[in-house]
Write a structure and sequence with these properties.
The chain is of the alpha+beta class. The chain has 3 helices and 12 strands; from the N terminus they run H-H-E-E-E-E-E-E-H-E-E-E-E-E-E. The protein folds into 2 domains: about 30 residues; about 210 residues, Lipoprotein localisation LolA/LolB/LppX (outer membrane lipoprotein receptor (LolB), chain A, Clam), CATH 2.50.20.
């Protein structure tokens, strides 16, 4: 009898604890206990992070490399330093293929001031943003080059202007979103986009553009992105220009 009473008391004390431990272990190893985010939730989160990151930016500078392709083959490469200050001031210092060429926008009349490099640096031109000399075959104008506009276009490409599914992949430093969507600048054209987003600062670091059939059209790469503050307004003027760099944000 003593033996049975001992077993009964031991069971009463240990059984509830044992059940609790087993339950905790089951919840810990059960993948359904914490559902993975859906693709839509992942996309919404990425868009929100990009918009929040850009909202904190006053100005920035980045090295840009643009590769143009024809029939899938590299036909032209442009490299330049791009400086932007909110709300709409921008400056392009060309490195290749026209070293020394400088473009700033807007002037007091909303035009683009252009100063050629080399022996032509004494001349200055003032052109409308949609002037054929400034507009690429992609349809993109110089006043449509800011990262803020790119982020808004990315949001449209992933939501109301997309066709089909979104592909999401990642590497150590970036997340890549691939989607077929309405072209950002060419009406009636569908373009397959690959958006490379930096997972550290949540700003775009590369955009690949392909035809709907997957033929590469253009790559735009943003390198050495620096968030800036205090960029002087006269940095965006060619008359008596000041080349002060501003101070990086801390």
């Amino acid at each position: 009898m003593r033996y049975f009473r001992f077993i009964s008391r031991f069971t009463e004390r240990t059984f509830p604890r044992t059940c609790l431990v087993v339950l905790v272990m089951i919840c810990a190893v059960n993948p359904r206990a914490v559902p993975a985010p859906t693709q839509e939730e992942q996309v919404i989160a990425i868009i929100s992070k990009m918009k929040a990151a850009y909202a904190r930016v006053e100005g920035y500078r980045t090295d840009v490399e643009v590769e143009e392709y024809r029939e899938g083959r590299l036909s032209e490469t442009r490299r330049f330093v791009y400086t932007f200050k909110k709300p709409d001031h921008l400056r392009i210092d060309m490195e290749s293929p026209h070293p020394g060429l400088v473009l700033v926008y807007p002037d007091e009349e909303g035009k683009v001031s252009v100063k050629p490099g080399g022996i032509g640096h004494f001349f200055k031109l003032r052109l409308a943003p949609d002037n054929p000399l400034l507009t690429r075959r992609t349809g993109q104008r110089i006043d449509q080059t800011d990262l803020g506009l790119l982020i808004r276009n990315i949001e449209h490409s992933l939501t109301d202007r997309r066709f089909g599914e979104i592909g999401i992949s990642g590497h150590n430093d970036r997340v890549i979103l691939e989607v077929l969507a309405a072209d950002h600048f060419l009406p009636g054209v569908r373009t397959r986009y690959r958006f490379h987003i930096d997972k550290k600062d949540w700003l775009p670091m590369e955009v690949d553009e392909l035809t709907a059939d997957g033929e590469l059209k253009r790559k735009v790469k943003f390198r050495d992105l620096q968030i800036m503050t205090g960029i002087p307004d006269n940095f965006f003027r060619l008359d008596g220009e000041n080349t002060g760099d501003g101070e990086p944000a801390r």
